[in-house]
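Q: Hi! First time doing this. I have a protein sequence and I read that you can turn it into a structure. Is that right? Here it is:
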Amino acid sequence: MFFKPKILLLWLTLFLSFASLFLSSWIILSAPNMFLLTLAVGAPEVSPWLFLLNLLPLLLSLSYIRRCKLRRLTCIFSLIGLLICGWVLVNIPLTQMQMDKAMKQGLGTNYLGQIPVEVSAKMQTHPFNLVNFFRGIPLGKTRHQTDIIFASPAGVPLKMEVYQPPEVGKYPTVVVIYGGAWQRGNPGANAEFNQYIANHGYTVFAIAYRHAPKYQFTAQLNDVRTALNFIRKHATEYEADPERMILLGRSAGAHLAMLTAYQIDAPPIRGVVNYYGPVNLTEGYKTPPNPDPINTRAVLKAFLGGSLEELPNQYEIASPINYLTHPLPPTLLIYGSRDHLVEARFGRQMYKRLHDSGNTAVFLEIPWAEHAFDAVFNGVSNQLALYYTERFLAWALFKE
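A: Yes, that's right. Below is the predicted 3D structure, encoded as structure tokens:
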């Protein structure tokens, strides 16, 4: 009876160390399907929690368990987990330095000096804040309106949500377009981001569009353009400045944001923010990622109505990378190095084409991040992305 509690503690500690290592391993493993992709997306973003979770069984085994094979196994599991999580944490300062350099190269060494002091004073002071990671990023107060119907193409009611600063005024406009492989999603996505941005002095419109495969391209592009026309027409009602507008999208939404802003007849747009969006659909079909948890070719077929062999012109028309024939709004591209839905190489390719064609662009890459890294709002990657996104927004919309 005397040894039973220690035996139980031994097995519980071993299980905890194995579970912690399993979760941490998805920081470096590639997910073969959508179920495991959730772990691959989330693991690096909660790496400080996983670091502590790996540390706990190690300390327990060293403090309370006598030497045995199971204790050694517990220590090995925990140490490997700590090394994996530590890789993310120790790379944060280096990644921050690289991002600082990229922002200055793209926007100018004194780009921060062009932002009014009253605007910069509201922004995050550090790219990563451990306190904010554990307690959450303060969102502040906003005014929020939902279920605003802006169009009904083919009888489909398209809605938007509007987030406004707490005080009445006239504010720069940020139009947010959700992702979801052009097949799913709604304007309620990423509500924390929208609230945060609105609290910092912007009117945020989160818009909907029709979904594939029932509605194929160019329906989605038309819906975004219709939303922009509605926003411009009703700008006064929603306290938005239509002449100071940025489009921000995630994944499929980023694709639509770029495609909309890059049209030669696009309304005045001050900038585009692309979070891990497809830019070259032709190349994406030819060389899908490996592993390919979303089945890239099936997604593109559903969106465009057929394969690349069947509709080569449609793939070309739907690729933002093919619209660099005229001056374009400044573009911020943010990708994860470990993205297995839209690989970072496409972001690098887009940045090079924009840069070589004389357009203003910034490319930021997060070494440990998967697709949809900002799903954890206070996570490691999103804190970095948010820090530089709000600086890009302020530079593009408030610069003097």
